[in-house]
Amino acid sequence: MAFNVDLHTHTFFSGDGVSSPEDLITSARAKGLQAVAITDHNTCDAIAYALDKGLMRADGKPVDDFLIIPGVEVTTDEGHLLCIGTTLPLPQRLKGRPAREVCDIIHEHNGLAIPPHPYDLFRAGIRFATLETLPIDALEVFNAATTLRRYNTYAFKYAQERGLPMTAASDAHHAAAVGTAYTIVHAAELSVQAMLAQIVKGNELNQRYLSPRESMLKTWNNWMRLRRKKRPEVQRSEEQQ
After folding, report:
1. Contacts of 220 (CB under 8 A, 6+ apart)
2. How far apart are CA 41 and CA 136, in angstroms?
3. Residue range(s) defining the domain that contains residue 92
4. 207: how many CB neighbours lie within 10 A of its CB?
5. What is the average pLDDT across 203-227?
6. CB under 8 Å, gap of 24 or more: what pairs does 224-233 form?
């Protein structure tokens, strides 16, 4: 069976996400997706939330025919790295660690290590020299929110040369952008285990870029996040808590 899966999405548990897991699921269903991986920046809080709310199951099976795949986007020393299919203990402490070390930790927890938006100089994409040293399981070759489209082309060519499985994803930071791009996974069933087993074998890609309006909204969200961090009154408030 063919399942439409967005393997790179963010909720408001990310510092730059704005939508709830519930809104993410609603939007994904409306767009014909059967699964999404929630990959918030350096936190797995959305996964704990989804389990608590009954939006996903600990055994990796779907809820009401929709699957949430656990994950996290780790900010390594060399760039961003997706962990797909599992959570990581204290992922915030992995921030700034070597990418090779994070890959090993992902594999120790039975997840897939997939670099997102590689080559993207403006979004902490892992560069070629580092990619060559990493035991990655697949490569995100189409990111709907990439800064420059040629970065996707570079990623696609590199994956071809290295013989890596390829993925496409929205990198949605708000619910409306979910499913802009996605991976078509052919698997025997809709489950986390079946998804992971097939992703490493090869997939079809649905490729569409964010609209100018969606890109502007993402940029605005990032700008507001940075502005909030810089405001001294916010910092003082956080220090007093």
Report:
1. none
2. 19
3. 2-211
4. 14
5. 67
6. 225/15, 225/16
Is 77 domain-assigned? yes
Residue 222 forms part of a structural domain? no
Specify if 227 maps to a domain.
Answer: no
Phi, psi of 198 (to 5 degrees): -85, -35
Distance of CA 133 to the CA centre of its chain: 21
Burial of 238 (0-12, 13-18, 19+ CB in 10 A): exposed
Looking up tokens 């059967």, which residue turns up?
Answer: 34
- Token pair 């099976």 in the structure block, residue: 61
The answer to whether residue 42 sits within a structural domain is yes
What would the pLDDT profile of 73-106 be if each residue is shown by its tens digit?
999 999 999 999 999 999 999 999 999 999 999 9
Task: Please name every residue paired with 71 in a beta bridge, in sequence order, or none if there are none.
Answer: 84
Q: Cα–Cα distance between 185 and 232 in angstroms, integer?
A: 46
CATH code of the domain containing 132: 3.20.20.140
Is pTM beyond 0.85 here?
yes
pLDDT in tens, 121-139: 888 999 999 999 999 999 9
Helices and strands (DSSP H and E) totals, the chain: 8, 9
> What is the number of structural domains in the chain?
1
